[in-house]
Amino acid sequence: MNPTCTLVLSVLMCVGYSTSRKIPSYVSLCHREDPKLEQCFINAVEQIRPYFREGVPDLFIPPMDPLVIPQAGLNSGDNFKASFKNIQIYYADEFKIDHLKVDLNKVHIDLIVSFPRLRIKSTYNIDGRILILTLKGQGPADGNFTNVGAKLTVDGERYFKKGKEFIAITDKKLDLSLGKPVFYFDNFFRDNPELNEQTNKIINENIVDILDELRPVVDQTVTEFVLGIVTRLFNRYSMDELFPN
């Protein structure tokens, strides 16, 4: 699972659920006509940040260090298939909001965040060929990322349901910057530790090209995950509940 999932799970939920029906006393409300609306959202996130590590059940924010995702898959046709289970993402609560622009009249959001570091542990199952590598194995995986960045653009439109105004997502775009992470996959060759080490070395030497090869699949997987969260948020809460006058 790409670390950008954590971005939306944290930032968008903080912004959206800050006006939910059960508001913790430490959350500030942001009003739609506030001339400093973006700064209000950022301040609200910073108020909640100390609670990220353990999670905020009233805001539907899960524990974020580690953030646990049951499973995710990356399938690139018939040539390469990979699945990851028990994904644990560490340091997700250290994200920084680099840019936020919200236009409620046009229903447009621009968000840029960065993660100084992320560590992702999981159990992998890989079978297939990518670039010059033929990989087949299963076991523990450990990845370390630095300076991860993501830009999210969301467009929507307003509609009425049962006399209340809601938002529907009409378009979305997610741009990822993964830097050059370092991975270690155990058990590619159980009976040959030296070959396992050599394979990991080759993977990391070619990791930028490997990620570029998988980028369409990664982008689609993350975008669908993100869209599902945002859609559920906007389906449940009206404009007045999310952004009161």
Q: Given the structure, what is the number of helices?
A: 5
Cα separation of the termini: 37 Å
Report the uncertain regions: 1-21
Oligomer: single chain
Strand segment count: 7
Give the SSE string.
HHEEEEEEEHHH
Q: SS-based structural class?
A: alpha+beta
Instruction: Give the overall average pLDDT.
Output: 81
Rg computed from alpha carbons, rounded to a whole number of angstroms: 20 Å
Categorize the overall geometry. elongated
User: Which sheet architecture does the biggest sheet show?
Assistant: 7 strands, antiparallel
Percentage of residues assigned to helices: 25-40%
Proportion in β-strands: 35-45%
Description of the structure:
By secondary structure, the chain is an alpha+beta fold. The protein contains five helices and seven strands. Strands 1, 2, 3, 4, 5, 6 and 7 form a seven-stranded antiparallel sheet that branches. It is elongated and about 65 Å long. Residues about 1-20 have low confidence and may be disordered.
